[in-house]
Write a structure and sequence with these properties.
The complex is a heterodimer.
Chain A: E1 7-10, E2 31-32, E3 36-37, H1 39-48, E4 53-57, H2 63-69, E5 83-87, H3 102-108, H4 110-115, E6 120-125, E7 128-130, H5 134-143, E8 148-154, E9 164-168, E10 174-179, E11 188-197, H6 198-209, H7 217-228, E12 231-235, E13 240-242, H8 246-255, E14 282-284, E15 289-291, E16 293-295, E17 300-301, E18 304-306, E19 309-310, E20 315-316, E21 321-323, E22 326-327, E23 332-333, E24 338-340, E25 342-344, E26 349-350, E27 355-358, E28 377-379, E29 384-385, E30 390-392, E31 396-397, E32 416-417
Helix pairs in contact in A: 3-6, 6-7
Chain B: E1 5-10, E2 31-32, E3 36-37, H1 39-48, E4 53-58, H2 63-69, E5 83-88, H3 102-108, H4 110-116, E6 120-125, E7 128-130, H5 134-143, E8 148-154, E9 167-168, E10 174-176, E11 187-196, H6 197-205, H7 213-223, E12 228-232, E13 237-239, H8 243-251, E14 279-281, E15 286-288, E16 290-292, E17 297-298, E18 301-303, E19 306-307, E20 312-313, E21 318-320, E22 323-324, E23 329-330, E24 335-337, E25 339-341, E26 346-347, E27 352-353, E28 374-376, E29 381-382, E30 387-388, E31 393-394, E32 407-408, E33 413-414, H9 417-420
Parallel strand pairs in B: 1-4, 1-6, 4-5, 8-12, 14-17, 15-18, 16-19, 17-20, 18-21, 19-22, 20-23, 21-24, 22-25, 23-26, 24-27, 25-28, 26-29, 27-30, 28-31, 30-32, 31-33
Antiparallel strand pairs in B: 2-3, 6-11, 7-13, 8-11, 9-10
Classes of the chains: A alpha/beta, B alpha/beta.
Chain lengths: ~425, ~425
């Protein structure tokens, strides 16, 4: 059979530009859009495209991803033939190593590809938000006899330097591939969605594995294949969003709230699947005020919520105001508290009357100035914010901090509050929660 | 080791007093609380009580129920040992019959009862909304050495619906069930019966046994002086056997501190989930005092209402004091007040459904539709600009052309044209 039936999803990403959000979970496991994790989009695209045999390459903090995916039931991937498998680095007889890069991850699991006798292989990324039918991509790849086909997307040229940029000739063949170029020649970028001829990819991976390189698809494999002249570009017009930075993460979430969202989460023809939590419907109290927001099963709102996204189990008590914020699962916003332009991870506890996201937005964060400088404040998982204090903008509160970790009370803009190190004060630095 | 228990859920009855809500489904399959079906309570109670051997007796319009339960995955009832079995009436070589009553349904499933080798058999009605700890019930039943434990609940306020009171002595022993309608507040059977299996099996073998479980099995056991005890249920309990009972039990969920807490993490109610996006309040949308499920999109105003998955409320539309089921569309400028709107209904632009003085009871069903509710059947189309008064029933599948003029006056019934012939 020459059609493509196996997909590998690259999901190892450290996601350092997401700051705290990916400190304890892989980027594909970061919550998104009120009930999803980012990898749900790629997984749903795969099964909606009829691909029910998926390997997920993970390395960094895989536990939350493993919990999320389980045996793949929400995606109908709990199957006798095919299904989903998490491919972790493992110890072998001869070669034992962590994945050295995305290409190396595929190479270390090449047995999985070989076993399937597939002539072509689909390679996807687990950290993008988009809807895509992979079948036309595969058809084009087969029809044109390409060695590799790359799905491409158009972004404004000034943004292209964060991505792999392709140069394409008149017939659609790629003549150049530049990974994160300083001065991008165009805005045509690689979406991180590829089909490879298995034999050609095998050769390229094998050569790369013995070489000193980053062992990366974008930096090493694709440029090498492009040299051979049979790499096709397949333009995909719709919506595609890389969740690379905090700002893009926040922006993509806020986009969901517009009146005519470019990316509607609800589309019965192309549903996005995710494990569901056992929660009653969202409960909006008699005095709740909810405006242009997403509310999920298990949320309870008795205060005001504007232009925000509430995940399952988030509670907004009376008199509290949540504005322009993302509040993840089981967080609690106490009475009369204010949360403004902030991202609260799971199980954050905001004490009565506390204010998060206040004042001056011009001072970038002390600890991660490149990524936390647009005025967002971010609060790590299970942090407890004391009653009545004020936290500025561009502030970062570490996961698991407790009330007593705020010695000075207020946290000014641009500040980073860390959890005190263990030892002298007898506090353990071990994570209080093993899983995210 | 817990004593082996077989649970039989009676879910086959036709809800005569549910009218358009109960014609395509049995009461146990009624959507409830924004995402559940009524039977989810019985099933969740079972699994929370550690009871994993369950038969569901179905007969009337069983498809929605069968589809809902599937292999029981949502309740962890897809099990190697025990699990859930759907027990519809079936054709036999001799003596083929529909279930003629609750006792007859058990008689026809004697083989299931025998195969289970249970020590006790819990027979419950599938149309109850209640959280009941059956494990505690079983424990008390065993301690008291009862042949039968009847769970009782206070008759809902205002109900004079023919339920019969359970009379007990000081120690909880049942003396009788007087042959008269109960007063509101008195103890009535909660449609939960726990039998000693040996006793029930013997009775089901009796030739000439009547068809009704209460009349022909429970009452004779009391009359014969067997140890029959009452166990009062002290929590929330409602039976979804009429439109008004259903509406009230639904609206009670919207109280600031509802008597039935759906958020209790120790006793969650399970149901198969739907793959829909979270609810969104968009544009000028505004919602308060409501339950809202996944897939809802509110661009109008919603007050004191329950929205099931996929309901859209368009700009300028108002939904208040209403229950709106899956995928119904309330179009621009429409107004829905004190209404129960079934699935996939289309409320046309500027249409007004319900609201206003209760006026006169429904012409055809005065006993069941008198408190001012409007009931709109599944897939009905309400014409743009029309008026549907209180105590009105719009039947399943009514088309715009079935409306004579633009008004369905208070107390009227609108039917689809084919059906009228």
């Amino acid at each position: 059979m020459s059609f493509v039936s196996y997909a590998m999803i690259l999901a190892g990403g450290l996601g350092s530009r997401l700051c705290l959000l990916s400190e304890k979970r892989a980027k594909p496991a970061v919550p998104f859009g009120g009930k999803y994790r980012i990898i749900d989009f790629t997984l749903s695209n795969a099964v909606n495209s009829g691909i029910f045999d998926v390997g997920i390459l993970t390395q960094y903090r895989p536990l939350s991803l493993r919990d999320h995916i389980g045996i793949g039931r929400p995606w109908d991937l709990d199957r006798k033939r095919g299904g989903v498998e998490l491919l972790q680095p493992f110890q072998g007889w001869r070669d034992t190593d962590w994945y050295r890069g995305t290409a190396d991850a595929v190479w270390q699991n090449w047995l999985e590809v070989e076993e399937r006798n597939a002539e072509h292989l689909l390679v996807l990324s687990g950290d993008h938000v988009y809807r895509m039918d992979y079948r036309p991509l595969i058809e084009a790849h087969l029809a044109r006899g390409a060695e590799a086909t790359i799905a491409t997307f158009e972004v404004p040229r000034e943004q292209a330097s964060q991505f792999g940029v392709v140069r394409v000739d008149g017939a659609g063949w790629i003549t150049g591939f530049l990974e994160k170029p300083q001065d991008p020649p165009s805005g045509r970028i690689s979406m991180g969605v590829y089909v490879f001829h298995t034999g050609v990819l095998r050769e390229a991976l094998e050569q790369d594995s013995g070489r000193k390189s980053a062992h990366d698809f974008g930096k090493d494999i694709l440029p090498a294949l492009v040299e051979r002249g049979r790499v096709l570009a397949h333009p995909v017009p719709d919506y595609w969003q890389d969740i690379g930075t905090l700002d893009s993460y926040y922006g993509a979430n806020m986009d969901l709230l517009s009146r005519e969202p470019a990316f509607p989460l609800e589309d019965p023809r192309w549903p996005i699947f995710t494990p569901s939590t056992e929660n009653p419907p969202a409960r909006l109290g008699p005095r709740a005020r909810v405006r242009s927001s997403i509310v999920t099963h298990g949320t309870i709102v008795n205060g005001t919520v504007e232009h925000s996204i509430l995940f399952p189990g988030a509670v907004v008590e009376e008199g509290a105001v949540v504005r322009g914020s993302i509040v993840m699962g089981d967080s609690w916003i106490g009475p009369n508290a204010v949360v403004d332009r902030s991202i609260l991870d799971k199980r954050v506890h905001v004490g009565r009357g506390a204010v998060i996201g206040h004042g001056d937005a011009t001072r970038p964060n002390r600890a991660c100035p490149e990524h936390l400088n647009s005025g967002l404040t971010i609060v790590g998982k299970a942090a407890r914010i004391p009653e009545g204090i004020t936290i500025g903008r561009n502030a970062r509160i570490a996961p698991d901090v407790a009330e007593e970790d705020f010695p000075g009370g207020n946290v000014p803009s641009g500040e980073a509050l860390e959890r005190p190190k263990g030892g002298a004060d007898g506090k353990s630095t071990a994570p209080r929660e093993a899983r995210v | 080791m817990n004593p082996p228990i077989l649970v039989l859920i009676l879910a086959g009855a036709r809800g005569d007093r549910l009218h358009a809500l109960g014609r395509l489904r049995t009461a146990s399959a009624l959507p409830y609380g924004g995402k559940y079906r009524v039977i989810d309570f019985a099933l969740s109670n079972c699994v929370h009580s550690g009871l994993y051997r369950i038969g569901v007796l179905t007969q009337y319009a069983p498809l929605s129920l069968h589809g809902h339960i599937g292999i029981g995955r949502a309740w962890d009832l897809d099990r190697r040992d025990g699990g859930i079995r759907l027990l519809p009436a079936y054709v036999r070589q001799r003596e083929t019959n529909w279930y003629r009553g609750t006792a007859d349904a058990l008689v026809q499933n004697r083989n299931v009862i025998e195969d289970a080798q249970a020590r006790h058999i819990l027979v419950i009605s599938g149309d109850l909304v209640a959280k009941v700890d059956f494990a505690r019930l079983i424990e008390r039943h065993e301690q008291r050495g009862a042949a039968l434990t009847i769970v009782t609940a206070p008759s809902p306020a205002g109900a004079r619906d023919g339920r019969r009171a359970v009379r007990t002595d000081g120690g909880g022993r049942v003396l009788g069930m007087p042959d008269e309608a109960s007063e509101p507040g008195s103890d009535v059977p909660a449609s939960i019966y726990l039998f000693q299996a040996r006793e029930l099996r013997a009775r089901l073998e009796e030739p000439g046994l009547g068809p009704d479980l209460v009349h022909d099995v429970v009452e004779p056991m009391i009359a014969e002086g067997l140890p029959v005890v009452a166990q009062p249920h002290d929590g929330y309990w409602r039976q979804m056997d009429s439109i008004e009972a259903y509406y009230e039990a639904s609206m009670e969920l919207l109280a600031p501190y509802p008597a039935l807490n759906l958020h209790d993490p120790d006793w969650l109610i399970y149901t198969p989930s739907e793959d829909r996006a979270p609810a969104i309040v968009a544009g000028d949308g505004d919602a308060a005092g409501c339950l809202m499920a996944h897939g809802c999109r509110v661009e109008g105003t919603v007050r004191r209402s329950i929205l099931f998955p996929g309901v859209h409320v368009s700009p300028g539309a108002v939904v208040e004091d209403s229950i709106v089921m899956h995928d119904t569309r309330v179009l621009d400028g429409a107004r829905v007040s004190r209404a129960i709107v079934d699935k996939a209904v289309r409320i046309g632009k500027e249409a007004h459904v319900g609201g206003g003085d209760a006026g006169r009871p429904n012409r055809e069903y005065p006993a069941d539709l008198a408190s001012g509710l409007a009931v709109i059947g599944k897939r009905a189309e309400i014409p743009a600009g029309s008026r549907v008064g209180p105590n009105t029933l719009v039947d399943i599948g009514v088309r715009e052309s079935d409306f004579a003029g633009r008004e369905a006056a208070s107390g009227s019934v609108v039917r689809a044209r084919e059906k009228q012939r």
